[in-house]
Amino acid sequence: MELLRFYSANSREALGLLTQHLWLVLLSTVVAVAIGVPLGILLARRPRWRRPVLGFANVCQTIPSLALFGFLIPLPFIGGVGARTAIVALVVYALLPIIRNTYAGIAGVDPAVREAGRGMGMTDRELLTMVELPLAAGVILSGIRVATVIGVGVATIAAAVGAGGLGVYIFRGVAVVNDTLILAGALPAAVLALAADGLLGLVERRFVWR
Amino acid sequence: MTSVLEVRGARYILPGRGTGDGGRALVDDVSFTVGAGETLVLLGRSGSGKTTTLKLVNRLLEPSSGEILVAGRATGGIEAHRLRRGIGYVIQEVGLFPHFTVEQNIGLVPRLEGWAMDRIAQRVRELLTLVGLDPDRFATRRPHELSGGQRQRVGVARALAADPPLLLLDEPFGALDPITRAELQREFRGLEARLGKAMVFVTHDVREGLMLGARIGMMQEGRLVFLGTAAEFRESPHPECRAFLEAAA
Predict the structure, then answer these.
(1) CA-to-CA distance for B15 and A64, rounded, in angstroms?
(2) What pTM did the predictor assign?
(3) ipTM of this predicted complex?
(4) Which of A28, B38, B106, B159 is most buried, by CB atoms within 10 Å?
């Protein structure tokens, strides 16, 4: 009840923060896909690189998010205070599931299908674009879905480096010990995560080949 | 008769650094020729080098030494993907693309070769009829909607799509139930006669080999230990040939 009153009194600010939050997640996910999918493809082609690259991405995933934001602030170009730092951090978190699932999706293509494709004279590029990527699409999308959901959560901490988003309410609420304020940030973030999960899950299901 | 396929002293050594199986010859000094309208059956136990020999022909594996000529041209001098588009390839697991319809699967090589859409559609219908599947019923289905036998029919049609002079078949009926297998073997015999293609047919089933091939090549530990007509094969004193014949008796 109190929450509703808060929203109606601060609707413009709340909507602004929600939009900011969405942007942070959307932009970082797009960048992570642009980096992660090609990297995953590369790993499927060069198995020797798999351990170091996945290992590195794994290590990045274990850095506490608040610490990562902190590390980034003093760095030139990618760091500082603001949305840029937040996006870099979000990309770092989104990379692992995307790289790993792209690799796993391609590696999981039936070897007989790959052999048939090669045996019929498909070039490496034709095999990738016509067979491997379409067949791996479901698994890749599931990685993007996981990355997006993680991103929605981690983006709440972006407020700590001045990037805005729903985390602003949470941090403010914690600082002044106000549960309503915390909820005003946490609840929409949770709903956003669930919505992203459900929506991307729907898209994913279109790529199931028996 | 000019030979469509000529294999001269082909050898394939497993790459490796001298450990385990590395450095072992999977195919050792194998030579044979296959002419148009002729089927050579490569017979042998698992691991005798039959499949490896096939893969040397379409360069899924590169020969360590020796020479292979397809239609008189050395395979090493042709880009691998170009070479393969001119050679039909059928494998036991079929390997149809699950996200393609039957029609798209069969039309793959023509599509890669840039044929016009209506010419591909025409060709697909022809081939479906040839392998005994009604085009109106099967063209738009996906592989998971087909039985094992129907899948392999599509596999054969796909291999024939661009009308290659040479066909490589690696135990194409090996995964089918006995009744379907017998049915496909019978039809395949009819196809052999009608198509007039050079074929290399790999199997470990003597009866299948004798039924489908005018000539038999017996492989043992990477070597071609016998090469001759089916009649000669029956009379061969070679212990591996005898072992196969006795096992089938």
Answers:
(1) 45
(2) 0.89
(3) 0.90
(4) B106
